[in-house]
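input
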Amino acid sequence: MLDARSSLADGALSPVPTWVNSLGGPLIVVPASALADWHGCLESGLVVAGGDVRDDYDRACEIDGLAGMLAVGERGRQGLVLADEPAMTCYLPERRAFLRWLAADSQADLFNAADTVLADPATVWEECGEWETDGPAVLMDSVNAGSELGIPYPDGGKPDHALISIPAAVWRVRATYRWANENTWVGLVQLTSP
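output
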């Protein structure tokens, strides 16, 4: 059974996951090496500001499906957009999966549902393409600029984000949203070897 301290193959315990919230738009996973190249929402952007410039946040909002990739900066790096729902999300390193809290009475219920969905060979997955990363990445709200993650909001608090320890690779991305029972709706975006 998966929980916040699941045993890994080597017997070590995984840390309690860091949950990342959205202010209402999609979350994105940006390679740490390209964080400064993600500019989020600009005052002249189309979606939020009603401006005339298509910014990074606008591009993230345009992703169709449960997940998709887009360019970050001009050096060939890619971000992985967790699209469709602005759901609170954490990363499960032992499963190489982003767990999206769509509906659940408790974190334990959500982890149990994720375990069930991941183990079920009948789970229907949406194939979302391939994501290339050069190593560690950051899960964050796509509205924020990567360079501003440590800067407090005017009304207090700082942007949610979580460092994702992941090896450099080209990953196949697949996603599913599934009701595990009448109270628990789980979203998963999983990275697998191509």
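quick obs: Residues 67 and 82 are 5 Å apart (CA to CA).
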